[in-house]
Amino acid sequence: MTSRLLRVSAIETLSPLVTRFRFEDPEGALLPLFSGGAHVVVEMPDAGVLRRNAYSLISDPMDGSGYEIAVRREDGGRGGSRFMHTKVALGDLMRISAPVNLFSLDLRAKKHVMIAGGIGITPFLAQLKQLARLQMPFELHYAARSRAEAAGLALLPASPQVHVHVSEEGNRMDLGAILGSQPLGTHVYTCGPEGLIEAVAETGARLGWPKTVLHSEVFMAPPPGAPFDVTLAKTGKVVTVGPHQSLLEALEQAEVEVEWMCRGGACGRCETGVHACHGTIEHHDHWLSDDERASQTKIMPCVSRFTGETLVLDL
Amino acid sequence: MTIQFHDETFRDDYTFHNSPEGIRRFPFPFDQDSYMYSVNLEPHAGGKAGSPFEKRFDVDEHYVAEMRDRAITLAEDPLRCQSLPHMELAGWDFLELVMVSKSEDYPELFMLNRDGDRWHWINRPLGIEQRFTFLDATTLPCGPMEYITRQTQGDHALLDQRDGNLWMDAGMVTSQADWSLDFDIGMNFFEWHAPVPKAHELGVFQRALKFLLNLQQGAPSRRLNWTMTVNPRLDTSPENYHKWGPEKRTVAPGNVGAKQYLRVELQTLWRLPRSNAIAFPIRCYLCSLEDLVTVPKWGRRLHRVLRDLPDELAEYKGFAVNRPVILDYLAPFDDGAPTSPGIFPD
């Protein structure tokens, strides 16, 4: 994973829970450009624990002067977003990975329709800038519970193609109406809670949309859970995974080399063989097939957990 | 280092030749005495000084002649260069990658000045000077991919990434080992690799695709591939098989050393920034058997590899018909001595 040390050059509160961070090269060098929908992995050295969280880039993909992300504080999470909100200060140097895109626009589309729920607005902020530069037709729908919580409002351009749906104000998003009136060749992108992604898929299926034009950002943070132990087949070493730690983080802490990239169960890079499993793997990834999951012979340590007696990994 | 560009041909009278330095820097593809398909990818992050691995886009003594040969092929068959409409952004990405790399790696040959989107490009070996607006295709004589690949050795495919697969949606293909862009355009990774024997069963393509989907910007990869070609011909395309296919029958014990070439492809893979596409340059190097055996290690090893190669591979690579003549020629150069690991001469 290539990465660079960047300086925090701006911190801005967007809503009570969401803060924007800007990173620039300390020497003022231009950063590699990227495509809308790309994310970076931010390293956070937090009191002896090295956390790595992925965040979508929200800045202009064609502007190499800096990278920007928007971080929602998740108090029930593993501590990464809390670290960003409480420990990071202007001028700090942080290690940021090269951009990776697992949610890119399909440039064959005749029109792009983007549907965002809550903090799921982030990848679209960069895609909007890319689409404006490419002069492609688009429409964006942004659903939020309340205006106060809608952090994206401050970052969205005032444009007739941008539609904001605030449920508190009785203006709920009507997926049937959105998907029912699009021209042929339209591609739809959804990012937000799992329920929203499922609702778009169901509405699309009902209206006869081909599955291949419905895209979603399946990226997710590793869920917390009960602590568990894993045994490494090569050394016999036992590694304990804490309740707010992912298996990948626990392996890294134990200095076990595992390749990784997205840390969100989407890219497949950290796929690890299971030597023996007496119990149940809680698969949280979007990479393994249903058959692979059922066979319990593979695990994605970035997001998946385990309950049961013993789990022995091919490591 | 000044490169002496050859005035030579890759068709008709075939005046192509390697200089002694050209032979020494040939990317011999076998790192051991046997060969089987593998995902033999490594980082494309420089290499031995003077070798074809050193620079991002290798420019050698054949540059000018190869670009002339490409222009002839394109004039006869414009479909060798195609770009589906959604790939123009990837074309610009690739143009930028090549211009930046070449002007930094060969400042005496190439120059790029950028003032925002206003670019000024000078290609001294080909005598080209162009001012244009980046991302505005109307300011170039042709599309961005065609423009830059008319000035860059090797074939080039631009692969779009979507639906967990790679799609061959643009390319410039005039020096290919018997495959056709016009046939493959729009195909996905498994479809365009369908004709390759054995590798599917080995799971090579599943693993390679997974690797490529995760290819990162700024971390290009490379691998070598190889085949055998009679006469130093770049355009061994299916479209022109009637021109070069019969030449296989002209190989005889008296001329095999001069007529039979080992054809090596240096394939590199680059993640492109704005389009998220992958650029896949396939650079072709040719070396005759009589030039190869001037490096004793290569003579010994090539004999062993070709002798022990499974029949399906010799058939697929198109030299099964001449294998006995080739082996008879190479056998005297193999004294049975052990060879050192790696591809470079001792």
Structure report:
- The complex is a heterodimer of chains A (315) and B (346).
- Chain A is α/β, with parallel strands linked by helices and 315 residues long.
- Chain A folds into three domains: 99 residues, Translation factors (Elongation Factor Tu (Ef-tu), domain 3), CATH 2.40.30.10; 106 residues, Nucleotide-binding domain of ferredoxin-NADP reductase (FNR) module (Rossmann fold); 86 residues, Roll (Ubiquitin-like (UB roll)), CATH 3.10.20.
- The radius of gyration of chain A is 20 Å and the shape is globular.
- The relative contact order of chain A is 0.13.
- The model of chain A has no long low-confidence stretch (mean pLDDT 93).
- Chain B is of the alpha+beta class.
- Chain B has 13 helices and ten strands.
- In chain B, the strands form two sheets. In chain B, strands 1-8-9-10-6-7-2 form a seven-stranded antiparallel beta sheet.
- Chain B has one domain.
- Chain B is globular and about 60 Å long.
- In chain B, helix 11 runs antiparallel to helix 13.
- Classes of the chains: A alpha/beta (315), B alpha+beta (346).
- Chain A: One of its GO terms (molecular function) is 2 iron, 2 sulfur cluster binding.
- Chain A: It comes from Paenirhodobacter ferrireducens.
- Chain A: Pfam families: DmmA-like_N (PF22290), FAD_binding_6 (PF00970), Fer2 (PF00111).
- Chain A: InterPro entries: 2Fe-2S_ferredoxin-like_sf, 2Fe-2S_ferredoxin-type, Beta-grasp_dom_sf, Cbr1-like_FAD-bd_dom, DmmA-like_N, FAD-bd_FR_type, FNR_nucleotide-bd, MRET.
